[in-house]
Amino acid sequence: MTTPVLDPDLLKAFLAVAEHRSFTRAAQLLNRTQSAVSVQIRRLEERIGTKLFQRTRAGVALTAAGDELLVYARRLLDLNAEAIDVLRARKRDAVVRLGVMDDYGTIVIPPLLARFAQNHPEIRVEIETGLTATMPARLGEAYDLVIAMHPEGRGDGELLRREQAVWAAARTYRAEAQDTLPVALYPPGCLFRQWAADALDAAGRPWRLAFVSRTLAAVEAIAAEGLAITVVKAGTLPSRLRALSNGLPPLPAADIHLHRARNLSQPAALLADHLRLGISEPASHILT
Q1: What gap in Å lies between CA 121 and CA 143, rounded to an integer?
Q2: Angle, nearest 10°, between helix axes 8-20 and 64-93?
Q3: What is the pLDDT of residues 50-63, one digit of tens each?
Q4: Are 236 and 286 in contact (CB under 8 A)?
Q5: Are 257 and 155 in contact (CB under 8 A)?
Q6: DSSP letter string, the chain
Q7: Please, are residues 189 and 133 in contact by the beta-carbon 8 Å criterion?
Q8: For the chain: N or C, fewer Cβ within 10 A?
């Protein structure tokens, strides 16, 4: 014999009538008609096979069976609400927002996220790439985690890796043949733009800003066509470019830091630890 299922909607109607001792007040509370509430109570009584209410001159009273069901109805509805709250909270916590530099977001992070997804398929990672100078200030508001670039020896957060900035151009490009060096760089606020300008000016090397873009792919494409040189991290040097040194001033090194928002959720903390370990490992698989 199949055990009857106690429908939460029927239990809510039962609880409303039991607590207010009135079908009319219960109907008003539930925003239903009195006849609709009566139908729900009748269905519940048919499902469990016993009367739950008896009418008296004072209104509606619970039967002995109704008195017993009242305790279980409250527990079942409380448990139902608790389960929904927990699952909704889990769904909210299972989204992790990550901010990262364009080159790391394109080259370094994807394989790490692929491994993370295999072990934690329930966690969704939303990633935003771009200039990271202002991202740490928006932790908690826009990001749970940020992987940002800082001048060597400066910046807060956890040091993950040190990257050397290098000049890069197409493999056949000859910088020494250019009277005025064309340079492809990123918008103001990017450390590489500042370092490139400062280094060339200090060396007295004539140069011009030939191309500006926020995206690594666009800057790389211009350099790969031999239209300009650019600045990249040695650890993420694109395969179609080569590092340049002859006749060009040296560039500083950069520190890659991991920044965490306060009161991280467990999913965000798991991703932070995974990225910390993955990025801190030797990057020989990235170098060209």
Answers
A1: 20
A2: 130
A3: 999 998 777 788 99
A4: yes
A5: yes
A6: -PPPP--HHHHHHHHHHHHHT-HHHHHHHHTS-HHHHHHHHHHHHHHHTS--EEEETTEEEE-HHHHHHHHHHHHHHHHHHHHHHHHHHHHHHTEEEEEE-HHIIIIIHHHHHHHHHHH-TT-EEEEEES--SSSGGGBTTTBSEEEEEEETT--SSEEEEEEEEEEEEETT--GGG-SSEEEEEPPTT-HHHHHHHHHHHHHT--EEEEEE-S-HHHHHHHHHTTS-BEEEEGGG--TTEEEE-TTS----EEEEEEEE-SS--HHHHHHHHHHHHHHHS--TTT--
A7: yes
A8: N
pTM of the model: 0.64
User: In angstroms, how far is the first alpha carbon of the chain from the final one?
Assistant: 70
CB-CB contact of 98 with 146 (8 Å): yes
Cα–Cα distance, 65 to 18 (Å, whole number): 12
Q: Are 128 and 201 in contact (CB under 8 A)?
A: no
Q: What are the tens digits of pLDDT across the range 146-188?
A: 999 999 888 788 999 999 999 999 988 888 778 899 999 988 8
Pairing of strands 95-100, 145-151: parallel
How far is CA 83 from its chain centroid? 24
Cα–Cα dist 130/206, whole Å: 28
Place of tokens 């239903």: 32
Cβ partners under 8 Å of residue 278, min gap 6: 112, 115
Burial of 242 (0-12, 13-18, 19+ CB in 10 A): middle
